[in-house]
Amino acid sequence: MKKITLALLFIAITSYPLSAQNNGESNLGAWYMLFTTNQVSEKVSIHAEVQYRNYEFADNFNQLLLRTGVNYNISDNAMATFGYAYITTDPTFEEPDGEQNTTEHRIYQQFLLKNSVGKFKFSHRYRLEQRFIDNPLSGNDTQHRARYFLRVTYPLNDKWFLTAYDEIFINLQNEFFGQNRLFGAVGYNFSKNLSTQIGYLKNDFRVDTFDRFQIGFFVKTDLRKKKENVD
User: Fold this and answer.
1) Which superkingdom (predicted)?
2) Angle at 193 between CA 36 and CA 46, to 5 degrees
3) Domain range list for the chain
4) Phi, psi of 18 (to 5 degrees)
């Protein structure tokens, strides 16, 4: 009996890392991102972004996210957005034959507030999402989700800055907790319209936790027509 117990314990211990590795939890993945804000009037701008996500640092596709939205600047410290996103996801770390991606069409509404305390700059983002998911295995599904995002940024000088955020995802149906993202990065301002952030993300789900390297570029453009001087 003792030998059987030890054998079962050995199997359990040795099989656990294998199961963790199968879903990519033990691998450092990467998110490569581009965010743009395009001003079209004094109050209105267009948001557009691309995120390419891998299960591993430079290989093994996980997800492609394309998102756009119309921003309305209520004030310098408040903004409302209505938008749409398209997402295609490889649901597994491994690549079985005949695997098909999950696709999602998403509508979202969000409200952003900003404030400062000394040199620390805070932003609070409240987002609602309506998700229309097509899973080749389980069929179509509609889900609703709420998200709260808190970012703090600290400027080191005119060029360099530190930033961190935490975002919690709440399902508005079964399984209340969705996920939590904790992120820290160092950023650099190339100019007032171009910056980058390089950092690390800890992505916690109900069961799994994933580590992700992130690099993002942030671009601002002004599409408003310049007023011509008239003599």
Assistant:
1) Bacteria
2) 30
3) 36-222
4) -65, -40
CB-side neighbour CA atoms (13 Å) of 42: 1
Q: Residue 108: which residues within 8 A CB-CB, separation 6 or more?
A: 69, 81, 82, 83, 84, 85, 127, 128, 129, 130
Which residues, other chains included, contact 97 with Cβ-Cβ below 8 Å and sequence gap of 6+?
Answer: none
Question: Residue type for 143, please?
Answer: Q
167-212 pLDDT, tens per residue? 999 999 988 999 999 999 999 999 999 999 999 999 999 999 999 9
The domain 36-222: what is its CATH number?
2.40.128.130
Please tell me the predicted confidence (pLDDT) of residue 95. 77
CA distances 54 to 27, 51, 72, 158, 204, Å, are 10, 10, 33, 33, 16
Instruction: Give the CA angle between residues 167, 194, 216 to the nearest 5°.
Output: 40
